[in-house]
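Hi, does anyone understand the following?
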Amino acid sequence: MLAWPTFRMGEERLMNEPENPCDKKNEDMEVCQELTRIFGRRDVDVEWSVCTDASDDMVGAEGEHVRYCPQVDFIVGPLNITKDEEELAEMRSTYDGLYEQFEGLFTALYNRDMVIEKEVSKSLSKSEKKCIELLNIERKSSLVTNFNPRCFICIEFEKHTKEKHVLGGILHASALGKVGIILTPDEDEKQYERVMRIRRYLRFCVQAGKMGYNTNVERNTILLPRDEFLGILRKYPFSQ
């Protein structure tokens, strides 16, 4: 049976201090440092490949990569990379417990996401606003989490990437994390709007039943500019 200790702020969860993931080559030391401060070094990784240490159907019998194995910018574990049914059930329970523990943080991030999207939407053209109204693209009042994630949190940083790459980043964050987070560069409104439009496209596809009725795609994602994300992380844990 898996036994994952409760996260405690400022403590290492095991006696042996793990390697600092922020020492790896990555382009955003500040995000990495805040993640490790909140969640601990052992469960944070950068530039992580989906097939790393996997023993499930993502890899073959000899550990070879038999499927596409994307590399994502940041993850927070623990990892769900086995096909043992008992371990999978235990891990899902672990994820539910972790989500409950950090629900205040996710709620703050999600609420800020909704506020910014609403503000940006005011600048859309009349035709775009009408399109959104006709398609009934509405957001859920709360986050819908992924039932079968590969990690607790998956973060993709969508910089000056083209639409098809942004679409892939959103899908990775949504499919791999119990909670998916998409970041855009500080003060880059055009890139934020680009990612927002693509997420709305996915939202429409889900609501119209074009991607299956039980999918979590897009519904478990949070979209924020990087500086907004960091600002909330730095305030955590929130004062009562």
About this structure: Residues 26-51+70-240 form one domain. The longest helix spans residues 103-121.
